[in-house]
Amino acid sequence: QVDLVEAGGGLAQAGGSLRLFCAASGSDFSINSMGWYRQAPGKEREIVASIRSDDSTNYGDSVKGRFTIYRGNAKNTVYLEMNNLKPEDTAVYYCNGDFSITYDGGSHSFPSWGRGTQVTVSS
């Protein structure tokens, strides 16, 4: 089992910035990818950004050029820098990861989710 703990979020004005932080903890796991999803009221959960073990990144179309995902000094941590925020960025942001553990002679992958952190952008 891998636990994800999120921090950051809160209230910002349109055009402002916020930074989210996520840390993964557990025993004997490797990280395939980590990233962020978000869900606004009445909408489906959508990908915001992800970073893979080779440091390749992927962004949702609505945040490209405004958000940046990167690793912290500890490889089990990721940050999401959110700039030029818009009211439509208002949502609960969930840290997500794809992890692997080895047992029974093989590698087994599984996802894990954080509890979410609220981001509210006022106009």
Give an account of the 3D structure.
This protein is mainly β and 123 residues long. The chain contains no helices and eleven strands. Strands 2, 4, 5, 6, 9, 10 and 11 form a seven-stranded mixed beta sheet that branches. Strand 9 (91-103) and strand 10 (106-113) form a beta hairpin. The radius of gyration is 15 Å and the shape is elongated. The model has no long low-confidence stretch (mean pLDDT 95).
Counted beta strands: 11
Poorly predicted runs of 5 or more residues: none
Number of helices: 0
- The fraction of residues assigned to DSSP E strands is over 45%
How would you characterize the largest beta sheet? 7 strands, mixed
Helix content: under 10%
Short précis:
By secondary structure, the chain is an all-beta fold.
Notable traits:
single chain; 123 residues; mainly beta; 7-stranded mixed β-sheet; 4-stranded antiparallel β-sheet; 63% strand
